[in-house]
Amino acid sequence: MTAKIISRLLSIAAATGLAAAPLAGQAQQTMAQGDLLGLPSDLSMLQDSDPNHRVATAVVNGFVITETDIDQRVALLLAANQRPVSEDEMLRVRMQVLRNLIDETLQIQAAIAQELDISQAEVDQTYARVAAQNFGQEPGKMDEYLTSIGSAPQALKRQITGELAWNALLRRNIAPFVNVSSEEVNELIDRLEASRGTEEYRLGEIYLSATPETEAAVEDNANKIVEQLRQGGSFVAYARQFSEASTAAVGGDLGWIQLAQLQNAQLEAVAAEMSPGQLVGPIRIPGGFSILYLIDKRQVLMADPRDAVLSLKQIQISFDPGTSQAAAQQRVAAFTEGVQNIRGCGDAENAAAQLGANVVTNDQIRVRSLPEALQNIVLQLQVGQSTPPFGSFEEGVRVLMLCGRDDPQVAAGPNFDQIMGELEDERVEKRAQRYLRDLRNDAFIEYN
After folding, report:
1. Which of 302, 337, 359 is where one domain is finished?
2. Are 165 and 212 in a shared domain?
3. pLDDT in the model for residue 279
4. Does one domain contain both 324 and 377?
5. Quick check: 400 and 313 in contact, CB under 8 A?
6. Is pLDDT above 70 for 261?
C-alpha cells in the first residue's frame, strides 16, 4: 500500500508523439443520445454561465476548500511537470485540481464516518519516507523545497491522508468481498502459455469521461492535454491529475497487457500500430475519450534481448578548442580506421594510446540502458567488434567495443500468486470507481 502511495506522489517519465484523428460519425451519435433526454434543439440560456470562470473554491459537506489549498496543490503539479503553462492551461489545471480536492475530501470524510480516522503519526511516517527517497539523509529539506515552489508540507500531507484513508476504506468495504477463483487464475496462466511469443504491450492511459452534453468540451480538453504532452509535459503527472481511470493512481500505467485486454476494438487497432515512446489521442470510445502512450512492448514469456548485460569499452577522442573543421575531420577518419584495426578488447588500451584516445571500461551495462539509437547496433555486434563512431567535435567522438555479453534467461512469467493479486487489484479498482461515484452523487457541494 505504502509503495503505491509513494509512487503516486513522485513524478517520472515524459511522453511525446503523434495525435490520431477522432472517429467519424461522432456528431450524429451525440445527437441521437441527446434525443433520449428530450432536450430542445434550440436552447435559450436564461443567464450567462461559464463554469470555467467560477472562483475555484468549494464547500464539501461542510468542509471548506480554499484558494490556498488549490494554489499549493497546483504548485505540486507544476513542479512535477517541470514546465511553464499558459494562462488558459493554468485555468484548466486549477479546475481539475479543485475536482481532485473534492474527491479527496469525500474519501477522507467517508473513512472518518466509518471510524477509520488516519493518525497523524501514520501520515508523518509516510511523509518522512517520501522525503528520504527524494533528499536522502536530509529529509528536512523536503519542507524547504515545498515552500520554495509555492506549496507547503501540509498540502502534501493532506494528499497522503487522502491516499491512506481511501486505501483503508477499500480494505474495509471492498477488498473482503472481491473473489477470484483458482480456476480463473489457472485459465489465465494457460492463456499466457498458449500466447508465448506473441507481443504484449506496456501502455499508459489518460481517460476522460464524457456525456452527450459535455462531449465537445471534453474532446477540446483532451486535445489540449495532448498538446501539452507533445511539448514535454509529464504523462505521469497529467494522468494523475486528469485521468478518471483507476490507473490514475499509478500515473496511468496499465502494466504489461495483451491488446485484447483493452476490450475495445478501436484502442486495440491504434495500440497495435504504435511504437515505444509514441503518444496517440484523443481516441473516441464509449463513455469518453482515451489518450494512449506506449511505454514499451515485448514478447510474452520470451527473453527480451534488451535485458542482456554487456561489458563495454568506450574509446574516445576529443578536440582542442580552435581545431579547424578540416583537421577534426581528418583526425576522425584516422580514428575510424585505427579502431577497425584493433584486435579485440585486449588490444584496446595499446591501440587507443597510439590513436591519442582514452579508454573507459563499463561492465554490467544493460542494453536497454543505452540510447535507443545504439541498442540495435550493439545487439548486432560480436565480441571484439565496435560500433561506428558517434558524437560531435564539441563533446568528443567515440566508439563502443563489445567485450562480453550475458544474454537473459527465458522469462518464466508471473506465478499463481502474482496473477491472483493482479486480478483482485483490478476488481477492487473497478468497484472503487463506482464507490467514489456514489459518494459524489450523495454529496452536498457549494461553489463560491
Report:
1. 302
2. no
3. 92
4. yes
5. yes
6. yes
Distance CA 299, CA 181 (A): 27
pLDDT digits (tens, 9 = 90+) for 302-334: 667 777 888 999 999 988 888 888 888 888 889
Residues 294, 230 share a domain = yes
Least confident of 134-148, 216-230, 391-405: 134-148
Question: In the numeric block, which cell numbers belong to residue 394?
Answer: 564539441
Give Cα 233 to chain centroid, integer Å. 11
Tell me the β-bridge partners of 399.
Answer: 315
What's residue 302's pLDDT?
Answer: 62
- Sheet with 199-209, edge to edge strand ranges: 253-257, 199-209, 288-299, 279-285
Model confidence at 41: pLDDT above 60: no
Residues 292, 381 within the same domain: no
Which pLDDT score is estimated for 8?
43
- Residue 66: CB atoms within 10 Å: 13
End-of-domain residue from the set 255, 284, 302: 302
Whether 282 contacts 290, CB under 8 Å:
yes
Share of the chain above pLDDT 70, in %: 84
pTM higher than 0.70 for the full model? no
Determine contact, residues 216/314, Cβ cutoff 8 Å: no
> What is the band of 427 on the pLDDT scale with cuts at 50, 70, 90?
confident
User: How many Å apart are CA 156 and CA 130, to the nearest integer?
Assistant: 10
- Alpha-helical segments (H) within 136-214: 141-148, 153-173, 182-194
Q: Which pLDDT does position 9 carry in this prediction?
A: 43
- Cis peptide bond N-terminal to 153, omega within 30: no
Owner of C-alpha cell 573543421? 325
pLDDT digits (tens, 9 = 90+) for 70-80: 999 988 888 87
User: What's the mean pLDDT when you consider all of the chain?
Assistant: 80
Euclidean distance between CA atoms 258 and 200, whole angstroms: 5
Asked whether 103 and 436 are in contact (CB, 8 A), the reply is yes
Contact predicate 441/48, CB 8 Å:
no
Position 322 in a domain: yes
DSSP string of 318-343, one letter each residue: ---TT--HHHHHHHHHHHHHHHHT--
Counted domains in the chain: 3
Q: Cell for 145?
A: 523545497
First to last CA, the chain: 35
Domain that holds residue 66: 53-178+414-448
